[in-house]
Amino acid sequence: MNSAAERAELWVGAGVLVVAVGFLAWSTAGGGLGSRLGPGYELRAAFPNVDGIEVGTDVRVAGVKVGRVSAVELNPQTYFAEARLRLPQRIVLPADSAALIQSDGLLGGAYIELQPGGAAENLEPGDEIEDVQGAVSLLSLMMKFVDSQSSDDGK
């Protein structure tokens, strides 16, 4: 009886180990995103605030995931956060496109939404998206609302 229980524990432990190795392989491969995107290029966007954005964050067009953030760094001259966006070659954006940091909901994560413009010229690899909107802090919005309500009560 003891040896059967030990064998069962051994098989369960081996199964857990196999699943853990599988998750590790999947996560280091980026969930297969690189193979789905194919060869790509990078664009840059400088945001005043990138709260919730980090390496690996989704880049979307019309709500469809088309890329990811490959780097986020602080520019010491402008004090803006510069994000590098990795996009597949098949996604070509007009030069007047916009990049906005959006939220998936109250408790969801953030992502970068690209809104294509209407210019005849396209962004080239390494170009910067000039029209940006940084992250909006829900806490600061609530504090502004509370302050406005308290000042109205004082009238």
UniProtKB/TrEMBL annotation:
Keyword terms, alphabetized: Membrane, Transmembrane, Transmembrane helix
Residue span, Mce/MlaD domain: 39-117
Xref: InterPro entries: ABC_MlaD, Mce/MlaD, MlaD_Phospholipid_Transporter
UniProt record, GO biological process: phospholipid transport
Pfam families referenced in this protein's UniProt entry, alphabetically: MlaD
Transmembrane spans: 12-34
NCBIfam families registered for this protein in UniProt: OM_asym_MlaD
Official protein name in the record: Phospholipid/cholesterol/gamma-HCH transport system substrate-binding protein
Superkingdom classification of source: Bacteria
